[in-house]
Design goal:
The protein has 76 residues and is mostly helical. It has one helix spanning 6-75.
Length: 76
């Protein structure tokens, strides 16, 4: 194992700290991006659920309207 001087160790420490700071900045940027994407996914999910609910309501309403018409046609 080679011995290093205090000056070399100080420089290595400063380099490592700089690398760490860069990685933390990148990680925080990715975290913010992931948070934004999650918000968009939740909004889209809510929209899809609303559309599905509306479609089901429309189908129930149409079935309710068509029910008496089918009964009337069956009586003729």
């Amino acid at each position: 194992m080679t011995k290093k001087t205090v000056k070399e160790l100080t420089k290595e420490n400063a380099d490592l700290k700089e690398s760490f700071d860069e990685l933390m900045e990148q990680a925080q940027g990715l975290q913010a991006l992931a948070t934004n994407r999650l918000v968009y996914i939740r909004l889209l999910e809510s929209f899809a659920n609303d559309v599905n609910t509306s479609l089901q309501k429309l189908q129930r309403d149409l079935a309710e309207i068509q029910g008496p018409q089918q009964e009337e046609q069956g009586e003729d």
